[in-house]
């Protein structure tokens, strides 16, 4: 292999290692140092409802003052790949792995639902820089609504309950717009449109809180993983993990190239595709009572493996001159 490529990979691995060590710290605190699920829930609530929104709001509050905005065609590349791979994954789960109709829908969701909030946002800013914030935020603002709605519709058809109504659809949309991350994205963009600078007495507390977001989020991810353990369904989990970590970013990259997406947007969406499965997929398992063991296993596998594949992907994107 090219020594320059190896050097770049070593550099990206060095940059990402402290972040994944923070995940391991969270895992260790929960597994061996007495931080129970109550503590994990409190920290997760602070990270998701306070720290991450503070960081997002501050980063986006001058988005229209700075040069360069996200090319919204990135949504076509990202969610186009998600739709295609969702149905491919669902087909594999149903026809090849012999899973139930509901379990197959959850499996398909696991193929495309990354941990974009708690892990993706802080990791991307640290490894790629603040220039990717608009692109990451564009995906974040649509991610939960589109993918939750997709799996809800699919599961309802699988169950054939007849409960799929406009009311349930709008309830899903409303729940998304109550999401603190989504609220902070819209408020940050709206503030940026005013062209005003945030007063220091307000900006400084927001900055201090936002600075805790990366560490807090990564620790919370690790503590969450400690609640799950490798169990039944491990073979299916490996299939799911392979699709998520390799086919997902590859398909995103292919669509990004086909539509002529710019380097920052291409790197941003491919980076998100490389991330491990998000905890939201496990919440879906609990809600629909299907494929819990498969998803729990895959969350652990993809998180461990992505500690190498994420820096590798960034290395390849930089080496090929895309970013």
From TrEMBL:
Source species, domain of life: Bacteria
Species this chain originates from: Parasutterella muris
Similarity field: Belongs to the auxin efflux carrier (TC 2.A.69) family.
GO cellular component: plasma membrane
Subcellular location(s) of the protein: Cell membrane
UniProt keyword Acyltransferase, yes or no: no
Membrane-crossing residue ranges in chain numbering: 16-34, 46-66, 72-93, 105-129, 135-159, 180-202, 208-226, 238-261, 267-285, 294-317
A Pfam match: Mem_trans
Name of the protein in its database record: AEC family transporter
Membrane topology value: Multi-pass membrane protein
Signal peptide as annotated in the record: none
Sorted UniProt keywords: Cell membrane, Membrane, Transmembrane, Transmembrane helix, Transport
């Amino acid at each position: 292999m090219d020594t320059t490529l190896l050097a770049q990979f070593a550099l990206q691995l060095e940059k990402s290692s402290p972040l994944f060590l923070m995940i391991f710290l969270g895992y260790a605190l929960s597994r061996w140092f007495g931080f129970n699920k109550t503590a994990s829930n409190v920290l997760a609530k602070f990270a998701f409802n306070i720290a991450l929104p503070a960081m997002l709001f501050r980063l986006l509050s001058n988005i229209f003052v700075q040069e360069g905005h996200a090319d919204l065609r990135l949504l076509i590349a990202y969610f186009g790949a998600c739709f295609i791979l969702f149905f491919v994954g669902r087909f594999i789960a149903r026809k090849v792995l012999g899973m139930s109709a509901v379990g197959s829908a959850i499996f398909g969701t696991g193929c495309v639902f990354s941990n974009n909030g708690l892990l993706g946002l802080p990791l991307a800013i640290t490894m790629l820089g603040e220039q990717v914030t608009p692109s990451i935020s564009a995906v974040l603002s649509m991610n939960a609504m589109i993918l939750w709605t997709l799996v809800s519709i699919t599961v309802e058809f699988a169950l054939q309950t007849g409960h799929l109504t406009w009311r349930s659809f709008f309830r899903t949309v409303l729940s998304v717009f109550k999401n603190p991350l989504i609220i902070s994205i819209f408020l940050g963009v709206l503030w940026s449109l005013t062209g005003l600078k945030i007063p220091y007495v307000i900006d400084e507390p927001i900055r201090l809180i936002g600075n805790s977001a990366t560490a807090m989020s990564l620790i919370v991810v690790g503590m969450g993983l400690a609640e799950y353990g490798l169990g039944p369904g491990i073979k299916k989990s490996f299939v799911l993990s392979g699709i998520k970590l390799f086919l997902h970013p590859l398909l995103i990259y292919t669509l990004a190239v086909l539509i002529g997406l710019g380097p920052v947007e291409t790197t941003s969406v491919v980076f998100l595709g490389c991330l491990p499965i998000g905890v939201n997929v496990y919440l879906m398992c609990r809600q629909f009572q299907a494929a819990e063991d498969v998803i729990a296993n895959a969350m652990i596998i993809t998180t461990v493996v992505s500690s190498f594949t994420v820096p590798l992907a960034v290395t390849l994107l930089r080496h090929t001159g895309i970013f």
